[in-house]
Structure formats: C-alpha cells, structure tokens
Design a protein that fits this description.
The protein has 277 residues and is an alpha/beta fold. Helices cover 38% and strands 14% of the residues. The chain has two domains: 172 residues, 3-Layer(aba) Sandwich (Rossmann fold); 40 residues, no CATH class. The longest helix has 19 residues.
Amino acid sequence: MIQDGDRVMVCLSGGKDSYALLTLLLDLQKRAPITFELVAVNLDQKQPGFPADILPAYLDQLGVDYRIVDADTYAIVKEKVPAGKTTCSLCSRLRRGVLYRTAKVLGANKIALGHHRDDMVETFFLNLFHGGRLKGMPPKLVTDDGHHVVIRPLAYCREEDLARYARGMEFPIIPCNLCGSQENLQRQAIKQWLQDQEKAHPGRTDNIFLGLQSVTPSHLADRLLFDFVGLIPSHQPEPEGDTLFDSAGERGALHLSHAEGRHLHFVKAGNFARMKD
C-alpha cells in the first residue's frame, strides 16, 4: 500500500479507528525499510457540537505535521436536501471532493482512511440490501478524479481489536453520534445483525470477509464480468470443480452402471476413497 517516496495524507476524524491508523503509521514510518511522509488532515464540516479544539491539541502534543480543513458541508447539505430525506450521498460526495482537493494541495499521492474489516463487511451488506449491488470497500483504489490512490491499512483488522487498542492508548475520542443520518441508522442495524450472527455462529464475519476475497464471477449473474453468452463445454473436468461425477477411472464417486427402460442406474465407483469432499 505504501511505497518508497510516498507522501501519505492520513484522514483523522477523531474516532478510535483514525487515531489507531495515525499511530500505527507513525510507528511504521520509524521502522519501515522505506522512506515516506505523513501529514494528518481533519475535515471540520461544521456540524453542530463538533469539538474543534481536541484534534489540534492532540496533534500539537504528538508533534506531527497536520492541517485542519474548514468546509461547511453541513450547511450545504441542509440547504439542498429536503427535511426527512437521507443526506448521506451528497455529504459523502462533498467530503470526498474536499479531501481529494486537499491531497492535491498538500502534494500527497496517497490518502489513508481508517476503515477496518467490519466496516468493509457492513458496507458490502449496505450496498446489497439497500442498493442492489455486490459492491464493497476495497483495501486500495484510485480516486474518482484519477489523481490519487486511497489506501485502507486497517482493512484486515477487526473492530474489536482496534477498540481494545484505543482503550489501552487512551485516545481523546470524539463521539461519532453527531450525524443521525439514515445511512448511519441503516449501518447500525446491519452492524447489530452481524454481531447477532457472530454470537450465534462464531467466525461468521471472518468467513464473509474471506468470501469478499474469493469471488467466482461464473457463479454469479453479471454478464459484464463473465461471458455467459459465449460459454461452451470444454469436455474436460475443471481442476477445482466438483469431482462427484468425474469418470470412474479418475476421481468420481459414482459411475453409470447400466440403463434399463426409463431407469438409469449409478453405482459407487471403485475409487470412492479418492473423492474430494
């Protein structure tokens, strides 16, 4: 994610994840066999009640290079979005636009965000349930304007581990309940659902995350990802395919014994023990 000579803009919200991200990157900067720069950035969107003094004081104490970006996106959203309608889409676009422009001004080629494994799984289900799309949150991508690379160094970290780390570090956490938007409420509902699943079936979130890393386009239905129209039989078994009905002389569990009228009779193959699970 980070290469020699990179200038990384670390987005700091005041939540546990972004504090952990900055702390870990500062530690990595000291020990890594490459040289890279860090600049912390906080976007003050002028939401009512946001404690604007906490982050500057913390960053001054830490002695890191930082910028506080003032952009009253809150007023724009309130003006443009009718009462009762979800504000998330416009707010997110405005926030991304400001951060991308800030990265350009600061000469940063990488933008580091504090999303973790659980965020990525929740985003997948948000898009699936509410947007009808199999779309998640990748560990690394190019920005919409094509000028920067967004990285998520905490992508493989569990939220509970980050929460434990934040408590141990005693970060000055800024509450994340300033926005009661519809998407945040939907995200909380999905988060609770996943937690219930994890309690009933330990390891389920890990399995879902593994699934996001092991996609089989031929077993979905997106014609842009897989050429279903041009699909033809190869007359050869797939190396990683189901071996249950491979020919009896190879790996199959069953083979056709004989046909009798309208009945076809299959029997257990001699090499049944070689069948893959």
